Amino acid sequence: MEGQAEIVINGPANAAIIGGVNTATLSWENPQNSLFSKIIIFQSTIPIEDYFSYGAVESLCDKIYEGSAETYTDTGLAENLPYYYILFARDRSGNYSKAVVLEKKPME
Known about the structure:
Blueprint: E1 13-19, E2 23-29, E3 36-44, H1 54-60, E4 62-67, E5 71-75, E6 83-91, E7 100-104
Antiparallel strand pairs: 1-2, 2-5, 3-4, 3-6, 6-7
């Protein structure tokens, strides 16, 4: 699997989530690595653990963001569902960091 032989890039740091009625705003700090390329975020309504590989997450979840910004707001969310966000950093060689998982709980 591409990028899974060796992890050479740190994942996003200080990741946090702020949930709204139909939104989730994610924030993080990009790795301070000269080889850093981008952040990739996936979304799921089924629980995903941080030990899942990029390949496993890619086949199970919806990719919702790719880029180098340090915030992302997901809109149009159902109030009664939990949402899981899985963040990976990617370096210029195609290696992926370990997963960082954030959860937005259903509104009560």
